[in-house]
Amino acid sequence: MHEETAAMLDHARAALPESGAHGFDHTGRVVRLCETIGAREGADIAILIPAALFHDIARPLEEETGVPHEEEGARMAESYLRSARYPEDCIPGIVHAIRAHRYSSGIAPGTLEARVLSDADNLDAMGAVGIARTFMQAGEQGRGIADATAHFHDKLLNLRDRMYTRTGRRIAEERHAHLVAFLDALDGEMGGRILQDV
């Protein structure tokens, strides 16, 4: 692993819990998805991988500060990268990708790297991992199955249609099918209507 990337990895790991719905394990999966999608789409890895490593770095601070984690994370990443003397021409692209990655931020990803990061982050909310993370988050917040299934309908089932890259869309089709099949099975086991129009 490149020395700069190893240092960034350590920095991100120190800022995040090891596991949880948005722990370092989520960041690791997003980085791997970015590597896969970025290679196929021709993204600049020198921008994409730091953005992926730092995309959730401020999430643990969001609840206490009220500052959206994508904004504070972009600021923290910029500060770190400048102090580490990362190539200056890469920093604006990294900052933009972090600011634009969040589903609800309202900032359109204006670069290929930002689109890849957005796709990777959303893909980790889909499929089997997305199902596990949804119930983990519900548990972390003291909520139950009904709240988790509401999240599927409010967000997760919409993600397939929010992919920006061809590679992201291909992966999303399979993961979306897993979400639908799971909700169908859960509906049958719970004896109630969980699966709405998808």
TrEMBL record:
Descriptive protein name: HD domain-containing protein
NCBIfam families: HDIG
SUPFAM superfamilies with a match to the protein in the record: HD-domain/PDEase-like (SSF109604)
Taxon lineage: Archaea, Methanobacteriati, Methanobacteriota, Stenosarchaea group, Methanomicrobia
PANTHER family the record matches: HD_PDEASE DOMAIN-CONTAINING PROTEIN, SUPERFAMILY HYDROLASE, PUTATIVE (AFU_ORTHOLOGUE AFUA_1G03035)-RELATED
Domain of life of the native organism: Archaea
Domain HD: 23-126
InterPro entries named among the record's database cross-references: HD/PDEase_dom, HD_domain, HDIG_dom
